[in-house]
Amino acid sequence: GYSPANYQPSPKEMQDISNGDVYFSIGVESEKAFILPKLKDLNEEIILIDLQKKVMENHELLFIGEDHENHDDHDHEEGEVDPHIWLSPKRVVTIIEAIRDYMIEADSLNKDIYNKNANEYIKQLQELDEEMENTFNQLKTKAFIIYHPAFSYFAEDYNLDMITIEEDGKEATAVRIQNVVDFAKENNIKVVFYQEEFDSSQAKIIAQEIGGEVVEVAPLSGDYIENMNEIKNKFKKVLE
What global pTM score does this model have? Predict the structure, then answer.
């Protein structure tokens, strides 16, 4: 799979993107570096909607380098907004509302359809969020180890502590690895999460050192509700 941090669309993909009437930006690095600077050149009439700004109107945005148990270094310069807002169902509700509002403005004749579809999906998101809260509130263990720091919003929403291996977008140093190993042993953590978009070798090294295992989570899977439920179940199994 591709990481949204460094994915570069091909010329054909850029042309396909530019053929649209609107582009909804989530704020990942590849958009800022490779897509947004070129879109207006390819289609000066395309409308750009910044979903991060829409989310910021209703929810707090986290920043790179903010402390989650002082372990979560990120693959960005400090002070930048953490782009992984889609891993927060609460924030995804705002994203759906923003998309609905644009579609109604652009195509008012189908207003009822857009409202109906958005309301149905928002209900599913709210039910998912409630299930998440109920699940994680019952767990005694709150800390988890993961290679890449994609789950900051997830951790904040459900009062979890994210411990990351990756440092500033680079492989962890030997000192960092030892610190994570020590933390895991002190807190009886036996699972290290990783994402398929990143090299899992360091996660496996740490898992071996603590006598544990690695478990893959997929922040980018296509079916959002289904995938978030799968992530919830994996975290529950590890933390209970």
Answer: 0.88
